[in-house]
Amino acid sequence: MLDWNDLRSFLELARRGKLTMAGKRLNVEPTTVGRHINRLETELEVHLFDRSPKGYSLNDEGYKLLPYAENIETKINSIYQSISGTDTVLTGTVRMAVPEGLGIGVISKYIKDFKEQHPAIELELVADTRSRSLSKREADIAITLARPSTGRLIAWKLGEYRLALYASQEYLNNNSKIKSVKDLTQHSFISYIDDLIEFPQLKYMQDLLHEVNIVFRSSSLQAQYQAVIDGIGLALLHGFVAADDKKLQVILSKKIFATREYWMVVHEDLYKLARVQAVSRFFTDVIKKEQDRLMRIA
Q1: pTM, full prediction
Q2: CATH architecture under which domain 87-298 falls
Q3: How far lies 296's CA from each of 68, 103, 161, 207, in Å?
Q4: CA distances from 37 to 11, 65, 258 (A)
Q5: Which of 122-126, 143-147, 195-199, 294-298 is predicted least confidently?
Q6: What residues does each domain of the chain span?
Q7: Res 125: pLDDT
Q8: Using CA atoms, how far apart are residues 94 and 145, in angstroms rounded to an integer?
Q9: Cα–Cα dist 26/161, whole Å
Q10: Which residues contact 287 (CB under 8 A, 6 or more apart)?
């Protein structure tokens, strides 16, 4: 008979990849996680992980077990929530993955408000340009730039935002004037590193401008923003990040801009958990509240 503790250790090790991280998540010693995995593999008479100096990764047999273990986890969570009310007190950890610009410009400014409403929820905010897999539990909630087309996911549109071309006053003072799109060929640009972009919606430079001289690339929006402030070149920036900065000026605003979307995405296994609903509902309201600012470029 399979033991739920063994399956819990299996799920956490599959998600974390290391005994120490899985043990920390489960609040047990790493050796305990290891014993659970060995016992589960003995019970099933298969190996579930490939071991390496880098950690543990699921093999083919492990991937076969994963959906069954996740279904059991969902049913047990539902029992706790429905019968004991454990989850309805809004405790526990929720990890939310968001694009870097939104994380810096909007979400981070509401963390204090969220904690005042839900002090017992430990919110983990992952804000970068990587996409996160909800099915692999790399995050519980994700704000993405498009509706997902596959997977057991529940998604809803949060709103839209705009980007525009910005330059520092210092840069404009030291370089030739920009009166038309053709003039941009004489100027320096800042952009993302193309092969590190996991969100195709971030490739707006290719959509709007062609044959420009890119002198600096970074996977970090914050680094790009600082480079514009320092006068290194022009960049397409989120209006809600750059519009209020008096050191920056929007360029050709009626000709060069982009509009993108934000979507809230939750795995259907987690959607009904009270703590997950509390986080998703709170930040859905935040994006609606901030919609006017998200669309500003000047």
Answers
A1: 0.73
A2: 3-Layer(aba) Sandwich (3.40)
A3: 47, 17, 8, 20
A4: 10, 13, 49
A5: 195-199
A6: 4-85, 87-298
A7: 95
A8: 20
A9: 39
A10: 106, 143, 158, 159, 262, 294
For residue 249, the tally of other CB atoms under 10 A from its CB is: 16
Amino acid at 45: E
271 CB contacts (<8 Å, ≥6 apart)? 154, 277
Main-chain dihedrals φ then ψ at residue 154, nearest 5 degrees:
-110, 130
Beta bridge partners of 277: none
Give the whole-angstrom CA distance, residue 155 versus residue 37: 34
CB atoms within 10 A of CB 103: 19
Sign (positive or negative) of CA dihedral 237, 128, 201, 284: negative
What integer pLDDT is reported at residue 201 of this predicted model? 65
Report d(CA 135, CA 66) in Å as an integer.
Answer: 10
Q: Which CATH number fits domain 4-85: 2.60.120.260, 3.30.9.10, 1.10.10.10, 1.20.1600.10?
A: 1.10.10.10
Question: Please, where are the H alpha helices in the chain?
Answer: 4-16, 19-26, 30-44, 60-79, 100-105, 111-117, 169-174, 204-208, 221-229, 239-242, 274-289, 291-294
Tokens of 165: 């071309």
> Which residues are registered as beta bridge partners of 242?
none
Please list, in sequence order, all residues whose beta carbon lies within 8 angstroms of the beta carbon of residue 99, skipping any fewer than 6 positions away: 127, 128, 129, 143, 144, 145, 199, 202, 262
| pLDDT at site 88 | 53
Please state whether beta strands 49-52 and 55-58 pair in parallel, antiparallel, or not at all (unpaired): antiparallel
